[in-house]
Amino acid sequence: MTDQATAHSPAADDGELTHRQILTILAGLMSAMFLASLDQTIVSTAIRTIADDLHGLDAQAWVTTAYLMTSTISTPLYGKLSDIYGRKPFFVIGIVVFVIGSLLCSFADSMYTLAAYRGVQGLGAGALMSLSLAIIGDIIPPRDRAKYQGYMLAVFASSSVLGPVIGGFFADHDTILGLDGWRWVFLINVPIGAAALTLVLATLTVKNVRVDHRVDWAGAAAIVVGLVPLLLVAEQGQAWGWSSPAALTCFVVGAAGIGLFLLAEARAGDEALIPLRLFRDRTFAIATAGGVIVGMAMFGGMMTLPLYMQIVHGASPMDSGLMMLPLVLGMMVASIVSGILISRTGRVREFPILGTVLLAVGLFLLWTIDADTSLWLVMTYMLVMGAGLGNCMQPLTLIVQNAVSPREIGVATSSATFFRQVGGTAGVAVFLSILFSRVGDSIRGQLETAAADGSLAVGIREGLADPALQQDPAALGILRGLADPATGTAALESVTKDSSVINRLPELVAHPFEQGYALSMSEIYLVAGVLAVAAAAILTLLPRIELRTGSARAEAARDAAAAAPSGVDSEAAAAHKPPRDRSAVSYVRTTPRTNSRTRGR
């Protein structure tokens, strides 16, 4: 069989793995998932401290986009290669590359070098989540998958709690063992990655039949040419101007790359990186389209919440991470409840529709916040948003995996993950671009209002008379810049580079800056809410869905046994008999081409 992720003991007679075997495999998978999810929560709460230390808060989008871009582009390639050669080798490669990227990030000396190293990290991350989900899809039947969601949710819950605490601890310390505290945010991935690698090597045993098969490198190259310029212009379009020569060049190159990608995929047929025929299935097409928009709304909305907590309410990195727990709680509870109901009823279509509606409601509520909104109210809105996401993420993956042949779990999962991450990457790039292009004008408007009512002048006098601020060059420079309109522009630019100074200003002076950031962020939640409504409308087009009761692994084995002549071993049949569905790119591949050679590995 092509790639059986099995425990050391034999499977059940019907081809299904036992509960104990599944738990053994999940131990390795969850260790890698913990590595990826912990990194996201640590970095998201520490990014403001990192950006302020490297003097590049307005370059934060590069760091986030670089990671999402490389993880997005590599995801379908990992899925395709793992369908052909097996899951385990590429899972291991992903962990190793992720750890190397983490180590490089700890040596970054600017936001742009950090962005480059995060890109390396993303190349590894592309394997961690997508291949984990693919292996889970291989070994657990769709109807039974909810029984094991608790284990996976425990990973996300623990990382969501530990990430902010650990990231906040590191970010709050100037130095630890002679290194900047924030650098340990990335260094901690090294021992965790080593532990994950050990578990994966111990728990995932692979029995693989090598089939010579052409890899769609042309499609992989074309997708890079198409996506990189488009994501780049999404991130920089506001700064360049949407009709500038640089933006127009990116649009032209990106469009050409997408066109070449479609031609390459059509020419590759069933060997394509993302087989275009998958989109002829209505369920797959609608679920994937909905996932793209959900990804945009989710990532675009979530990335700014820690910034809101830290910049507007003066929360420390650790505190801001803990303030995100209502979002995590909403996701966990909704995911557990939806998983139980799906397992008992077999109904799944309604949950992503409900989830996108709740997501839209939560985002529209966040649209109403400003600098004076109670934190408890903000966290209540986040709870609603989390409940929406909890009803979307796992059900959408389940729908996609159920819609395709059991042999295509890898390519289908990676394709759906790829498109969702494309949406998320575009959302982060566009929304952070909107934030940092609008925040300057928003702050100026708030400063003008404060100057008109006299509160700004009072705050400036109090600040200039405060002995403590005399020892703070950054805060003192802003106060003097505001007192002298000729240098006020420079003061505003310094705040977008290092926002930590806002929390050290007198309250009457800090409030216009906080309100400017808050109102700029609220615009993001409005756009994200509209996207969530669009996703809900698309997902209502899903047809009725009947979940399979057998795992992909077992169904493929039964297909091979049914196709074998009497007395012929099913694995031999898998290597020598043609599959029933010639269009399928098989996870358990049942035939090489006539000019192929197979050999056991």
Low-confidence region ranges: 1-13, 567-601
- The rounded Rg comes to 25 Å
Overall helicity:
over 70%
Cα shape: globular
What separation lies between the terminal Cα atoms? Answer: 10 Å
Order of strands across the biggest sheet? 1-4
Count of β-strands: 6
Order of helices and strands: EHHHHHEEHHEEHHHHHHHHHHHHHHHHE
Q: Largest sheet, described in full?
A: 2 strands, antiparallel
Secondary structure class reads mainly alpha
Please tell me the overall pLDDT: 77
Put simply, the count of helices is: 23
Query: What amount of the residues lies in strands?
Result: under 5%
Question: Could you explain how this protein is built, in words?
Answer:
The N and C termini lie close together (10 Å). The chain has a two-stranded antiparallel sheet. A two-stranded antiparallel ribbon has the order 2-3. It has a two-stranded antiparallel sheet with strand order 5-6. The model is unreliable at 1-13 and 567-601 (pLDDT under 50). It has 23 helices and six strands. The longest helix has 44 residues, at 409-452. It has 601 residues and is mainly alpha-helical.
Q: Which descriptors apply to this entry?
A:
601 residues; mainly alpha; two-stranded antiparallel ribbon; 23 helices; 3% strand; globular; disordered N terminus; disordered C terminus
Q: How do the strands and helices of this protein lay out in sequence?
A:
Elements: E1 4-6, H1 19-53, H2 60-85, H3 87-105, H4 111-139, H5 149-172, E2 175-176, E3 179-180, H6 184-187, H7 189-203, E4 205-207, E5 209-211, H8 217-240, H9 245-268, H10 282-302, H11 305-312, H12 317-323, H13 325-345, H14 350-366, H15 375-390, H16 393-403, H17 409-452, H18 455-465, H19 473-483, H20 488-497, H21 507-539, H22 552-563, H23 570-576, E6 598-600
Antiparallel strand pairs: 1-4, 2-3, 5-6
Helix pairs in contact: 1-4, 1-5, 1-7, 1-12, 2-3, 2-4, 2-8, 2-17, 3-4, 3-7, 4-17, 5-12, 5-13, 8-9, 8-17, 10-16, 10-17, 10-21, 11-12, 13-15, 14-15, 14-21, 16-17, 17-21, 18-19, 19-20, 22-23
